Fold:
Amino acid sequence: MQLEFNCLADIKGRVAESPVYDERTKRLYFVDILNRTIYGLELSSDARGSWSFESEVCSIGLCASGALVVALRHSIILFDPESERRVDFCRVEEEDAPTRLNDGRVGPDGAFWVGSMDDRPQKQPIAALYRVDPSGRVERKVEGLVTSNGLAWTADGEVMFHSDTRGPWIDRWRFDRESGAISERARFATLDDTIGRPDGGSCDAEGFYWSAGVSAGRLNRFAPDGSVADSFTLPVPAPTMPCFGGEDFRTLYLTSLTEGRAPELLANATCAGGLLAAESPVAGFPSWRFLDI
Structure:
C-alpha cells in the first residue's frame, strides 16, 4: 500500500487540525488551533475562506443544518460559514480551568464528543472526554486524561476509538449509537515516540483505524485486532489528523503542526503546518452530523 501526498493548503499553521469533509458542499474544513482560525477549502476550485475567533479553535464537526459545531477554548458554539452567524451553545469547562478543549468529533449518536488537555507545560492527568448532546447537556464520560485525542468510529457506529497522546495509548469502546453509552473499554494499542504518539484518528470503511503519529512523522493504520497493518512515512514531521473525503471518499486528507518543532525538522518539509491530500487505496465514509435541527 502506497500513499503519495500533495500539498493543498500551505498555510504554515502552528497547529493545523480537525479536517472534516462536507459532501454536500464539496468543501474541506480544518482549523489552526493556536492561530484561532477555521479554514474552508473549495475542492473544485481551490478557493479558500477563513474565519477568525476570539480564542483557540480546538476542533469542529458538521451540523445537520449545514453549520459547524465548534469547540473553542472552554465552550461550544454553532457557526454558519455562509452567513457567519454564530450561536453560543454551551460551556464545557470553567473559564479559569488549567485545561482547554482539544480533539472533537460528531458521533453516530448525533452528539459532539470533545476532549480536553492540560494546557500547562508540566502536564498532569486532569483532562476528560465529554459528550455534548443537541440539547446542550454536557456529560463527562472519561476522566484522568492528559491529552484527549483520536476520536473515531467504525462505519457501523458500534465501535469508538479514543486516545491519550501523552499516554501514549489508544482505547477501543463498545458504542451504543442510540444513547451514546460507551462500555467494554479495552486497550487497543500502546505506542511510543518511534512508531508515533497518537494524535487525531479516523476509520476507513473496512474497520481499520488510522492514527497520526505526531512524534514520528508517520501515519499508522491499525487492523481491528490492534496490530499495525501499515505505517507510512510522511513529508511532514508532525502529522495531527487524517480524514477521508472527496469523490467516493477515496481521498485521504491530513493536517500537521509546526509548533514546538525544531527549524531543521521543518526546513525540508513539504506543507508543514498545512493540509495534504493523497489518493487512498481504501475508502472512507461520510462524517456524522450534529443534530442541531
In short: Residues 263-266 form the longest helix (4 residues). The radius of gyration is 17 Å. Helices lie at 263-266. The CA atoms of residues 65 and 293 lie 6 Å apart.
